[in-house]
Amino acid sequence: MKKILVVDDNEQNRYMIEILLKTNGYQVDLAANGIEALEKARTSTPALIVSDILMPGMDGFSLCRAWMADETLRQIPFIFYTATYTDPRDEKLALELGADRFIVKPMDPDELMVVIREVLQQHHEGKTVGQKPTKEKDEVFLKEYNSALVRKLEDKMAQLQRSNRRLASLYKASLDLLTIKSVDELVALILKVIVESAGYQQANYFTYDKENNLLTLAGIEGYSDNSFDSLKEKLQFKFGSGRGVVGKVASKGQLLNLGNVKADPDWIEYDPAIHSALFVPIIYQQELLGVLALFAREENAFGEEDCKDITVLANSLAVAIINDRNERSVQRQLSRISALHFIDTAINSSLDMHNMLDIFLNQVILQMKVDAADVLLINKGQSGCRLVATRGFSDHERWNFPHQTEYNLAKQVLLEKQIVQENGIQDLRVDAEFARTWSREGFVTYFGAPLIASGEVLGALEVFSRKPLKPDAEWLDFFSTLAGQAAIAVDKGQIFEGLQRTNLELNMAYDATISGWSRAMDMRDQETEGHTQRVTEMSVRLAELMGLNGDAIVQIRRGALLHDIGKLCVPDSILFKQSELNPVETAVMRQHSQTAYDLLKPITYLGPAIDIPYCHHERWDGTGYPRGLKGEEIPLSARIFSVIDVYDALRSDRPYRKAMSESSVKDYIREQSGAQFDPRVVEKFFELIA
Asked: pLDDT by residue (tens digit) across 313-344?
């Protein structure tokens, strides 16, 4: 196995070359400067030497000169590998000293291995590229050597001056990022600093649209005034796409320094004067936000310091973007909470459904950023719907917007009982007048949500936009919440107007009774206030995830609301005890499951809901109470509820303990799978909260 001596004062550079060579089947010896290299070579002769130039003690030129003066070592091929001495005169001096190759960093690892193999093969065949000096005049060497040092000193001075200016500019920009709020302003500032102050020719910023998986040009600097629109159209990339460097950088999430852009097959040329580029992904906690791109007219314009400086700036930009996003999110949430409070106040202070809905639709248009909205209700005992409130339509169209016919968008909402989105109606079967109105109004996007109260669909909330809408999950959740508010308003209005059917009133009475009992329990035990509502809603969601529906869901909701009704008979001295219960007290507390059974069993319509109050303390392994049921002997509804009940209880303070952390509660539930809980329910539970 051939041995190669690697000489470089940078430990990381030595390590990278060492790994590359060993991976390709070579032995490697390492040295940090020329003096150490000579000592190692004379002790154990290598087959090849690869040396940097700028090193302390003895640099690469001096090492090569000493190497060629040694009768044994001069027979060993010598390769220079440098990022500092890149002038053609440096290469000329190196070859005149006897080097076989002069390589400028960075070079593709595969290409570097090709060069190394070629040099070794040529040496094996007796061929050489460098001119092995037979007798060298010291004054000639010293003159050329000193000339190279002077050039490098001048380059270093100029580079230092540029670096100082660049660092000052970048430092100022980082401070400015702390005060500027708008993302557009942030990007504009960064690009301006990069071009005008830091000394780069051009800069771009691409923002990442996660929903559409696109990287879109969001800002430029260093171009002509009318360049942005044409560049934005041309420079748009799919995440990870083979077309263009930006998509590749985004998918890998790593900085990319192109010393010669024309050599990269993914490069898209739009300015022939550009020869090098630096691409830096903007990432915050593994989330891609965008890509920052810098361009220069000369080759190999971006060095290691440039990469470090721009990376620091990119990190600052990422934090600033997230701060701006968080602030806007908080403001949006506060605005929406305020709107919900305003709507609640209107509902609670008025018995006039039309007045409530007028106030409601004003808030819908304001918060959802749409152009028009309406509420329509199902005609009881008749076909079709009737429009009861509108906002944002043209005056002459306001009450003529046709919903009473069979073919309208709301019908799909009412049938599917979920949010419906339509981007245009050209491919839909709709009423002709509806289509004409849609066209006259200039609508582009439609969203509809059902109004559901006590399990009955009352109507639909519809919103219309004259521009495309691409809502996120937060928007859709709030839209659903608003539909719930509308349902409350309609439900309340219809109750006071006497439009509810007898069967609906009876169902509401049942639910009101159950809710009253539930609230009574919560009012008695302040420590668990809100617990019943939380576990009820979460149990219903878990049951639906496990495939339950229809009446089974209704019974789970009722059972969850009444799960602790038996505690009404537990003395306060036990229920609110600040320390652990003694055996006698524990026995009394455990009677609440049987008490619940005794209370609810005589009520016929609650019979199917009794499983949760009676059995939610049974355990999968059979060690629970009151009956010691085991496995699937325990009703499924009780098995579902027990996981939710423990999850909520452990995350809440109790008189005798503090709440556990979210992660600790999850760990506990995993540990109890197969012991306290049904493993299949636990599996679905973690899907629910994922």
From this structure: 788 778 878 877 777 777 767 776 776 766 77
pLDDT tens-digit series, residues 22-66? 999 999 999 999 999 999 999 999 999 999 988 888 888 889 989
* Rounded Cα gap, residues 202 and 196, in angstroms: 9
Q: Quick check: 125 pLDDT over 90? A: no
Q: Which residue has the higher pLDDT, 490 or 685?
A: 685
Helix (H) / strand (E) element for 66: namely: helix 60-69
Q: Taking the model in full, what pTM does it have?
A: 0.41
**Number of Cβ atoms within 10 Å of the Cβ of 311:** 15
Encoding tokens for residue 552?
């089974």
Q: Alpha-carbon Rg of the chain, whole angstroms?
A: 38
* Residue 612: predicted pLDDT: 94
Average pLDDT over residues 401-419: 72
- Check the CA dihedral 540-544-550-552 and report its sign: negative
For residues 23 and 5, give the distance between their C-alpha atoms in angstroms, rounded to a whole number.
Answer: 15
DSSP 470: -
Q: pLDDT above 70 covers what percent of the chain?
A: 80
Sign of the Cα pseudo-torsion (220, 224, 229, 232, in order) = negative
The two structure tokens encoding residue 400: 């003529």
Instruction: Give CA–CA dist 327/181, Å, rounded.
Output: 9
Residue among 479, 537, 473, 534 at smallest CA distance from 339? 479
Tokens of 369: 């950023």
Contact between residue 288 and residue 282 where contact means Cβ atoms under 8 Å apart: yes
Domains of the chain: 3-136 (3.40.50.2300), 163-326 (3.30.450.40), 350-498 (3.30.450.40), 503-689 (1.10.3210.10)
> Which DSSP state fits 573?
H
Q: How far apart are CA 127 and CA 121, in angstroms?
A: 8
Residue 125 tokens, joined: 């065949």
Nearest 5°: the CA angle 530, 531, 537 is 95
Kindly report the backbone phi and psi dihedral angles of residue 29, in degrees, each rounded to the nearest multiple of 5, phi listed first.
Answer: -120, 145
Q: What is the pLDDT of residue 531?
A: 84
Question: Of the given ranges (196-210, 357-371, 548-562), which has the lowest mean pLDDT?
Answer: 196-210
Q: Is the pLDDT of residue 241 over 70?
A: no
CA-based end-to-end distance of the chain: 54
DSSP secondary structure of 339-388: HHHHHHHHHHH---HHHHHHHHHHHHHHHHT-SEEEEEEEPTTSSSEEEE
DSSP β-bridge partners for residue 293: 204, 279
CA dist 342 and 331 (Å) reads 16
Cβ(393)–Cβ(443) below 8 Å: no
Reported for 16-21, long-range contacts at CB under 8 A and 24+ positions apart, including other chains, are: 17/50, 17/81, 20/109, 20/112, 20/113, 21/116
585 exposure class (CB count in 10 Å sphere: 0-12, 13-18, 19+): middle
The dihedral region occupied by 631, where left means phi > 0, alpha psi between -120 and 50, and beta the remainder, is left
Question: What's the confidence (pLDDT) of residue 155?
Answer: 57
